[in-house]
Structure formats: structure tokens, C-alpha cells
Amino acid sequence: MLIEVLPSANLSVLPYLQNKIVIVIDVLRATSTMVTALANGCQAIIPVLTPEEAIEKRLMIPGALLGGERKAIKIEGFDLGNSPFDYVPEKVGGKRIIMTTTNGTRAIRAAAEAPHVWMASFLNLQSIILSLYRHLESNRNLEGILIICAGTEDRFDLPDTLCAGMLIDQLRLDLEVNDLAKAAMMLYSLAKDDLVNVIRSSDHARRLMELEFDRDIIYCCTQNILPIVPVLKEGEIVWLT
Ligand code: 3SL
Ligand code: MG
Questions:
Q1: What residues does each domain of the chain span?
Q2: How many CB atoms lie within 10 A of CB 190?
């Protein structure tokens, strides 16, 4: 099985999508927050590119909440930011959320043409792995797995790459990997015994700590606590069934 990792997402991912299962990772914080929202009873998340698109979409979905960030801060007039702690059951239970973030939702939208798009984070990695085994078994036409790290504004992002490395490290499949997949595994094996501190030292985590989002980082580094695989289905992110 071919497994490739891309360092960031924009429309340049398009040539890689055919016959692939795509896994989008934005550890800090979009995919971690999405998994949390679904675990807390949110009905669906609709990823959009801009705050304006979000506001326009809400006109067609009465009762939907607006969520997301720019420069890590909640967008003015939105109901929720991009902290997983915003997405508590009392706020998101039974709701659809229209969400826009700087990197995560952009990566998901860039991947939308792929036949299968899933969202991963440390929180749900074990469920991703178990679902991959089942899915590959029943979809023999798939040619490989493409992991798209959301990256940070088109640049390499250490937390996303470490999560990709852990995913590949724990996949018990006969794998052919690209160079970044190899590098991700190497980085993960160097960092795994001190993962939280390595992630706290990354560029984006330092920025989040300046904004007092330290507990978000610790939460987003927690492994395998949410048994959920979010999947993009007709433009909405829902549980894989
Ligand atoms: O870029 C994104 O999608 C965000 O998750 C970034 S932040 O952690 O909210 O700054
Ligand atoms: Mg990120």
C-alpha cells in the first residue's frame, strides 16, 4: 500500500487525490476541534473558506452555529472560536456548525475531490487506524493513502507531521512510503517519549501559548480518547458509519 504525506494543503494537492483515501491532519487545532465537536453531539460541520462564505451559508441553514478563527482568535460575530473547549455539549449538541479556519478547513476543501476524506488528530488516531483496515479491505480499488498535513500558512508544521508519523508507525500494513512519510516516522520516533514538550516547542504552539491556549495544546496531544472518524460527505463532516 502506497502512503504519501504532503506538508501543507492548497490546490496543488489535486493531482494526488485520485483513488486515494485522504486523511487531513490539523493537530493545532482544527481537526482536533472537529473530532471533539462530533464527540460532543454536534450533528455536522460544514467547512468553508472564508468568514463571508460562512455568514452567507448560515442564511440557508437556520439554527446553524458559526465557528472558526483568524490568527487563532474567534472571528467577530461568530458563536465559537477554534478551541476544542468551545465545543461543549451544551453549545454544540444537535447543531450544525459552519466552520472556517486558517489552515484546517482550507486543507479539507482542497481535498474534497478525493473519493474519501477523513479527519485525524492524536485524539482519534486509533479509530482512524482500525477504520483504515476495514475500509481498505472493502475498497480494493483504492491505490493508496494520502495524508495531508494542514500546515501553517503553506509552511511545514511539526505537530501535524508528528501525528502523521505516529499514524504510519502504528499502521500494520506492507507500506511503500514517500520521503516526507519517512521523515515523519523518523521525527515521531525521536519525539514520541516527550511528545507534548516537543509540540509545545513548535512555532504554532508557541503562538497559541502567547494567547493563553496552553490547555488546548495539552488536550490536542492526548492520544486515542475519542472513538470517532470524521468523514466528509456531500460537503459536510459527519461520523463515519
Ligand atoms: O489553521 C487552522 O485551521 C487552525 O486550527 C489554526 S489555530 O490553531 O486556531 O490558530
Ligand atoms: Mg495547525
A1: 2-237
A2: 12
What atom of ligand 1 comes closest to residue 207's alpha carbon?
Answer: 10
Its pTM surpasses 0.85: yes
Q: Are strands 20-25 and 116-120 parallel, antiparallel or unpaired?
A: parallel
Per-residue model confidence as pLDDT tens digits over 12-62: 888 889 999 999 999 999 999 999 999 999 999 999 999 999 999 999 999
Atom of ligand 1 nearest to the CA of 104: 3
Q: DSSP for 167-210? A: HHHH--S--EE-HHHHHHHHHHHHHGGGHHHHHHTSHHHHHHHH
Mutate to test the pocket of ligand 1, among 25, 32, 100, 101 (most ligand atoms within 8 A of CB): 101
Q: Which CATH architecture has domain 2-237?
A: Alpha-Beta Complex (3.90)
For the CA of 213, the closest atom of ligand 1 is 8
Q: Which ligand is nearest to the CA of 29?
A: 1
